[in-house]
Design goal:
Blueprint: H1 2-29, H2 36-39, H3 58-111, H4 135-138
Length: 154
């Protein structure tokens, strides 16, 4: 029984031995002098210009959410597509509900401006209720010319 797992155990032992030897070799061979260049974070050879990193805009995370949502949708659709004939109407309804939920999240993200990458637009919205508006100033009667007066008829 143990013979089946012997190669796996041997590989695990070799991995542990390699890790321990690597740690001891780096401690033994690494230079001990610490200076400012070694203490700086590694930036692929680019000297950092900013002291404080810029924050990612919320739109970046919204696009990431869209990607994750559609990635999960595809992960669920492949097995469903393989066995959808065996699932019957139940499988079709379940996938329909799932697709509606995914589409709803997509509409929500698009509504929050997930794909608007340009500069922020400032809109000057008028208040919803304008106190100067009245029914006579807003509603215009159209098409009453030539009609007979129904108010006086009894």
């Amino acid at each position: 029984m143990l013979g089946q797992y012997l190669p796996v155990l041997a590989l695990a032992a070799l991995a542990v031995i390699f890790g321990v030897i690597s740690i001891f070799a780096s401690r033994l061979l690494a230079p001990r002098q610490q200076h400012e260049a070694k203490l700086d974070p590694y930036e692929c050879g680019i000297v950092p210009q900013n002291e404080v990193p810029h924050r990612f805009p919320v739109r970046f995370f919204l696009v990431a959410m869209i990607f994750i949502v559609f990635d999960i949708e595809l992960i669920f659709m492949y097995p469903w597509a393989v066995v959808f004939r065996q699932l019957g109407v139940y499988g079709l309804v379940a996938m329909g509900i799932f697709m509606v939920a995914v589409f709803e999240s997509f509409v929500y993200l698009i509504g929050n401006g997930a794909l608007e990458w340009g500069p922020l637009k400032r809109h000057d919205y008028k208040p919803l209720v304008d106190l100067d508006r009245t029914i006579p100033s807003t509603v215009r009667r159209v098409g009453l010319d030539g009609r007979y007066n129904t108010e006086g008829a009894a």
